[in-house]
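EI: anyone free to look at a 340-residue chain?
SC: sure, send it
EI:
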Amino acid sequence: MTNLKGRSFLTLLDFSTEEIEYLLELAALLKQKKRQGTAHRLCEGKNAALIFEKTSTRTRCSFEVAAADLGMYTTYLDPVSSQLGKKESVADTARVLGRMYDAIEYRGFGQERVEALARYSEVPVWNGLTNEYHPTQVLADMLTMREHFGSLKGRTLVFMGDARYNMAASLMIGCAKLGVNFKVAAPKAYFPPRELSEKCRGLASETASQISFHEDTQSAVKGADVIYTDVWVSMGEDESVWEKRIKDLKPYQVTREVMALAGPQCRFMHCLPSFHDLNTGIGQEIYKKFGLTCMEVTDEVFESEQSIVFDEAENRMHTIKAVMAATMGFPEGALNIQEA
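SC: here you go
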């Protein structure tokens, strides 16, 4: 049995292919248990601090429900409920929380903050999102792909849009580790950082997958199993970037025509939230300023049968639960991983 007890979950770069596959198997089994209504309180009586310097719907709900299912208690610390980095250093906060809690989740800004929490707290720390990485999302993405296609190895995922930041970076790492071909369709200025790209190409060579970057959408998406996109402006970025971002990325919007180029086997994925209609405050603002009724994906694609975004969103909970259980440790024999 793979043993991850006591490990922090900060980036998929820290985990082997076998360890990631174990987490996916464990998530599938825990999902099955929940669907069956079978109790799986593997971390009974444990306590976790959930630090959210950036707010979230899916991440917070996933951690809180997963913890409750596992028999854990949580304390939610929002951006104004903690002195982290303000009146108290990250290191000091880590040492305090490590004395009170069995684990810590962090969602916020630079990767150095979650790394410091892990270094000083001496308990498992889970990365709920940083500027550089979003590993729990990618576990959910990979579980969703496995459910829809039966296997991962040899599949092709195309990321369309701004590939410079955490989402594309983590997808590239996950794909390279699991043998999934990874492509980017974007302007050259929006390709992932070169150093990480080269590192992932090295990882991909070990799993016989391919990593490539394309400015031409047609050549990138043809035959793709998954087309993936994200919002064009990330949380915390200034509103002034919208005009240039729209101009640069509008040609890489996921449309019905793009999905048709990929083929009927292709599925659409998005980490959410998505600006696919005018039913949000930001959507209304963009419509008034730029006349767009949707941004990174059209509503007809988002609402189509090819869209599996809500399967993906649900799987955040199951994969986060697997990370929590595995890193907290649970009694040997409590679960049979072969059941999944």
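EI: The mean pLDDT is 95.
SC: 👍
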